[in-house]
Prior knowledge:
It contains 14 helices and no strands. By secondary structure, the chain is mainly α. Helix 4 runs parallel beside helix 7 (117-134).
Amino acid sequence: MAHSSASALALPTSSAVLELFKPITWFPPMWAFGCGLVSSGVPIAPHWLLAVTGVLLAGPLLCAASQATNDWFDRHVDAINEPNRPIPSGRIPGRWGLYLAILWSALSLLVAAALGPWVLIAAALGVVLSWAYSAPPLRLKRNGWWGNAAVGISYEGLAWITGAAVLLGGAMPDGRIVLLALLYSLGAHGIMTLNDFKAMDGDQRMGVRSLPIQLGALNAARVSCVMMAVPQAVVVALLIAWDRPWHAAAVAGLLAVQLALMPRFLAQPRERALWYSALGVNFFVLGMLSAALGVRALIGAGA
């Protein structure tokens, strides 16, 4: 009993909290937020403080909060599979994992509110999705279709829309910006599937119905490739329709590189998923920036 009380009163170390927040995961929403800034058509330099605050909102606040939430509700599974993580190892003692998840979610919403109404709406939806992804009763992560969609929307679509809204004074972005953000959210669904191959054995034992478990490795790999490629092809078509041929060519070229790499991934999905994630996804995110620059030029031209 004394040991339990001492654990409840103990404070987590700053290094354990930082590990819980997983800075390496902050890049995707921060990049998408940056694409939103670019696509808005508003000069960034005069609004650098807003831009920096928004980047911090996307990564060290919202994304970090989602990581803390996920690790708290995964603590029993992690105690079996990854006992050295901050919560199961006791380096985040007692219920501090839950407290940090709540505190960081609330802090994220406060910062978002200061940046404007649409930023707050997007951030609130991101917080709801992150809790729905990890927490019962929904726990969307137990099904690959729903869980990957929640992460794709949060990390790509909402971050992109929020970035544009910040420079627009909190106003709703142009519909073409929203459309691009949604398309790249679909693409991110495929990227999330790449992360599921390494956990197939554990997911099978724990009843997590990731796409590799539901469909088998090869079919899940095919779905992942289609989910990544088709939205980018639609982006190319849209950029052509919007009279942005050079930006369309850039996205098409980057997509062609991904298509050339996919057969090697499909030949051995489990063994090469991380290889494709580390290599092919780079061309996906560069295409995001190319598309953002295309819309920026379109809005700047008054079209």
